[in-house]
Amino acid sequence: MKVLNKIVRVLVVDPWKQLEQEYGTEKRVELKILFVFFIIAFVLILRNYYGKFDNFRDFFPGFAKSSTTLPVAHCLYFTISAFLMYTFIPLIFAKVFYKEFNPIFGMSVKSLWKFKWIYAGMLCVMVPLIFIASQMPDFQRMYPMCKPANIGGINLVVWEISYAAQFFGVEFFFRGVLLFILARVYGPSAIFMMMVPYVMIHFGKPPLETVSAALAGTILGGIALYTKSIWGGFFLHTGVALGMDFASLYQSGHFN
After folding, report:
1. pLDDT exceeds 80 at position 138
2. pTM of the model
3. Average pLDDT of every residue of the chain
4. 3-state class of 97 per DSSP?
5. Which residue of 145, 212, 218, 225 sits 20 to 30 Å from the alpha carbon of 203, by its own alpha carbon?
6. By three-state DSSP, how is residue 252 classified?
7. CB half-sphere exposure, 124, CA atoms < 13 A
């Protein structure tokens, strides 16, 4: 029990106290925080109604009908639109409304190597969970999300590269811009404010993944705020996602 208490104190209690001191509340910016929630709503609405696979056919009907040389074209629309919506839109808002904050938005790389053991430990935990999840029918039907990638070859390579780029956008939006702006007013409690919309983008995925997103979003948010870096979360998130794709393909017999 003493060991457990020490672990909780070192990993949770002490960092939380440090974050409370570092990210003290600033009442003068409370009105501007309303814009953050507007950004969240605006980006999620765009993503839900204009960033899905099927929207490719809506915006590029001619190319969609003739896209035989690049079967993953609609998948690229999904990932590229996600990257743009999650990166450039919040960045524009942040530069216009929050430039006096001079925020780093989690782009620091100074502490990445220092906390490598955290990311390595989380990855070690996730590897067996990925293998177990890949055997479940729900996950095999869901992943890879880009079905032409099941063909393998260049289609799979193109999809996975663009899929990885999308996760930079996800991390930058949730664990970068949103988290670091909210933390200036709400301190580490901002982690939980960020976690809610992050869970929402998982609606429609397997229930287990959606539930796990609440825990993963909270942990990655805490790490990003403490280390001032989204990069560890990006590499971890990308590794888990690509691992899920390949594990699902393996379980489905695509590599036999």
Report:
1. yes
2. 0.85
3. 86
4. helix
5. 225
6. coil
7. 6
